[in-house]
Design brief:
This protein has eight helices and no strands. It has 184 residues and is mainly α. It folds into two domains: 137 residues; 44 residues. The longest helix is centred in the middle third of the chain and has 40 residues. The chain is flat and about 45 Å long.
């Protein structure tokens, strides 16, 4: 654990600032909290220096590997950057507004699913979600940015996922074996 990751090191005012940041991000979470990783990185690593790049990526990888909701990485980022108060602040900040808005919007959309404007809005949000996911993927895969073999492997895997019905677990296992062998 780095010095920036020492639990219980922040004051309530700093937890409040973290809560407000995640509260704002929550309302931008089109496609899930994972699409907000670039802005979380900007805030926690670049601007505030609360985490290193390695700690940030490790926190996301650990939370994504654990069973449970996809959004657990936010709690782990909060814990690593500001202790227990940071974990609570980030979790509440990311969950409260988006959950409330999602519930209200899904009920509204369900009652109007035949409207052309509703269908058009849903279709228009798809490229935004895909773009945010691509930005997240690019940020979390520095080897792809610098190693041609990793880029080729990423393209092959994307093509397999897109065009075949290969189970993802086989692709993950293949990637783990290639990584263990030092290929990427």
């Amino acid at each position: 654990m780095t010095a920036a990751m020492t639990p219980f090191s922040w004051s309530p005012e700093q937890w409040w600032a973290l809560f407000q940041h995640f509260l704002t991000l929550s309302l931008l979470a089109i496609g899930g909290a994972i699409t907000l990783v670039p802005d979380m990185h900007r805030r926690l690593v670049i601007n505030d220096g609360l985490l290193s790049d390695t700690d940030f990526t490790a926190a996301i990888a650990l939370a994504q590997a654990a069973p449970g909701p996809n959004v657990l990485f936010v709690s782990l980022l909060g814990w690593y950057s500001a202790g227990l108060g940071g974990a609570l602040a980030s979790t509440l900040g990311i969950m409260l507004p988006s959950s409330t808005l999602a519930l209200a919007a899904s009920r509204w959309i369900e009652s109007r699913k035949d409207w052309l404007s509703v269908r058009a809005f849903q279709a228009g949000m798809m490229p935004v979600t895909v773009g945010l996911l691509l930005a997240t993927g690019w940020l979390l895969t520095p080897p792809v940015n610098t190693q041609p073999r990793a880029l080729i492997l990423s393209i092959v895997v994307a093509g397999l996922v897109w065009r075949t019905k290969v189970r993802l677990i086989w692709l993950v296992m293949t990637g783990a074996i290639l990584g263990a062998l030092g290929w990427v």
